[in-house]
Amino acid sequence: MHVFQPIPIEQLEFNPFTTIGSDWALVSAGSKNKANTMTVSWGGVGVMWGKNVAFIFVRDTRYTKEFIDNGDFFSISFMNKEYKEQLNYCGSHSGRDVDKIAQAGLTWNYKHSIPFIDESSFVMLCQKLSATRLTEDSFISADIKKWYPDDNMHTMYIAEIIEVMAK
Cys staple from 160: which of 23, 51, 62, 66, with CB 3.0 to 4.6 Å? Predict the structure, then answer.
């Protein structure tokens, strides 16, 4: 297990367009007894309701969504580029069917009982503030509908970033 140190959020420097959109991240939720992770490439960070927040989007069919919905916390683990294959694996296999962490050669770690990926370069520990299911009638642009040909919609989660950690 690696030792992660808290870092002030004001010192966090990363480009969300590349770090989330191109490099991807792993969202994990659950407990020490049972947890799951999934790859995300949609989301961001900012300020909402006077809090530093992260927002992620999770499709209805994703197994990790059950863990996020049943708890108050989740983590977002950011990996170095050499972990792209593991990220791809975690995004294309369901934790319902396989132990994704073991199969991807990754390791669980925990802080405040929140699961995260030990091989991460930095981690955001998040407490849920809001969950909003996207619906077809909420889209202003018809172009967005192309992302939902099978009506497998997303839920947008907004969460306060309660701690940022790095190795």
Answer: 51
